[in-house]
Design brief:
By secondary structure, the chain is of the alpha/beta class. The chain contains 8 helices and 11 strands. The strands form 3 sheets. The chain has a 7-stranded mixed sheet with strand order 5-2-1-6-7-11-10, sandwiched between helices. Strands 3-4 form a two-stranded antiparallel ribbon. The longest helix has 16 residues. The radius of gyration is 16 Å and the shape is globular.
Amino acid sequence: MKSLAVFIFPEVQTLDLFGPLEMLGALQLEKKLAITMVAETAEPVVTRHGQRVIPDKTIQDGSDYDMLLVPGGDSAIPAAGRTGVGDWIVATCDKAELVMSVCTGSILLAMVGVLDGHRATTNKIDFKDTIHLGPRVDWVAQARWVQDGKFFTASGVAAGIDMSLAVVEHLCDREKAEWLADGCEYDWHKDPDWDPFAVTSGLVKG
């Protein structure tokens, strides 16, 4: 069984978190994945829309996980600078065989240096205003998600669902990912280069 740490922080974007968990959680039900919610403290974490999420572990409890998921939100950027967060992210990424981010979660990863030299993407509405925080990252303006080695980075919010299904395909197979998408009546965008939001955000020409 693989272990997945999900880093949660105050004001985390709700769908960034629960979209991937809807897909990846199916693997936990099948005893193929153990999901651990990790936060800075043991106090409940309140999402952007007010849901209270109780952490299973804190960043003080260690960083030995097979996989890591970092959702986003406006609060991801200040989280990168808080005591202990950067060190925990770096240590967890060093040990993990697969690292995922959604939206500005990739900016958090970039700010602590783990995406240096890698291709990655992030939220398109905030793209121009945030990528300077990761100057050594090869930012991809038009992509639903980007895989570079063990790193899977998704564009904004709902793109995390498409990315997480690609991770299910990576871990299992295409049939499993399609079965999960169909079960949620979700139209999975399988092409990582499908990204009309790069056009509407003025990052590329239509």
